[in-house]
Design goal:
Layout: H1 4-18, E1 23-28, E2 34-35, H2 39-46, E3 51-57, E4 60-65, E5 70-74, E6 79-84, H3 90-93, E7 96-102, E8 107-112, E9 118-122, H4 124-131, H5 145-153, H6 159-163, H7 174-184, H8 197-216, E10 257-259, E11 267-269
Parallel strand pairs: 2-9
Antiparallel strand pairs: 1-7, 3-4, 4-5, 5-9, 6-8, 7-8, 10-11
Length: 275
């Protein structure tokens, strides 16, 4: 957390409310979240630039700046980019790590409670090299059933682990991998190469559907995720697998199983109707 739907929501929100704003100053409160720059360098490279675009790549929120530099934020577990109009609650300010002061009096806080996320500044060349290591976007038209089937056919990895491999397909983490596999009726521990073409197609459709629905619901919040205005997402109430271990399967009524055997993280599935 946050995964694709959450970072997409943050990026869309920010683009709508800060695109065109000029960064007047940068305050670094917790330098351990910085990557590829230190506090002095981020001020030198960012202050005085204009935010031209806010967008998402994989699980990253990217701010394109005038002059070509990019601020690249990877929120990981507890990170968030919050717009402060002067009324940001103290509970959020307490965990602010970097503040971008805008020339209109507003500010963007990178808030990270556990400080496991990162904030980097990248040149165009550095960004190009970094982005080249990332896999295909699952909401890209090129993410077809045939494409996924080819990925699966060549691996003995558990299908859930493949879905979460950011070098192959980006943006899918533990929450939405669990959900997509439940919807597709596929056992998360099955070897990728064991899936038939029709199962790969079902899984591709499930991935696209669950990500789209989660974006519409503005993400999944349990404790820490907030959109750019500090509002939690609403998709948690629609989860069928993740976080529901031991509860009845919404499809067949069997008790959902929890295991950590697939990738070391909590995997929830129905042993009765996921084959």
């Amino acid at each position: 957390m946050p995964e694709l739907p959450e970072t997409e929501t943050i990026a869309r929100d920010l683009h709508g409310i800060v695109a065109g704003a000029r960064i007047r100053g940068v305050t670094v409160l917790r330098p351990d979240v910085l990557r590829e720059v230190d506090a002095a360098e981020i001020r030198r490279r960012v202050e005085g630039t204009t935010i031209e675009r806010c967008w998402r790549r994989a699980k990253l929120v990217v701010l394109d700046l005038s002059g070509g530099e990019r601020i690249v934020v990877q929120p990981r577990f507890t990170g968030a980019l919050l717009l402060d109009t002067g009324a940001l609650p103290e509970r959020e300010r307490r965990y602010s790590t970097v503040i971008l002061a805008l020339d209109d009096g507003r500010a963007i806080h990178y808030r990270d409670i556990r400080r496991l996320g990162t904030l980097a500044v990248m040149s165009p060349a550095r960004w190009h090299a970094y982005a080249a290591s990332l896999g295909l976007e699952p909401l890209d038209p090129a993410f077809t059933a045939a494409y996924l089937s080819d990925l699966l056919r060549g691996t003995r990895q558990a299908v859930k682990k493949l879905l979460m491999d950011q070098r192959r397909v980006v943006g899918i983490g533990n929450i939405y991998a669990n959900e997509a596999l439940w919807r597709a009726r596929v056992d998360p521990s099955r070897e990728g190469r064991s899936l038939r073409a029709e199962e790969a197609e079902r899984l591709r459709d499930a991935v696209v559907a669950v990500l789209g629905e989660a974006i519409e619901a503005r993400g999944t919040s349990f404790r820490d995720y907030r959109d750019a205005s500090g509002v939690p997402g609403r998709f948690a109430e629609r989860l069928a697998a993740y976080g529901r271990g031991g509860q009845p399967c919404a499809r067949c009524g069997a008790r959902l199983v929890v295991t950590h055997a697939v990738d070391g993280r909590s995997t929830v599935f129905c042993a009765h109707c996921q084959s």
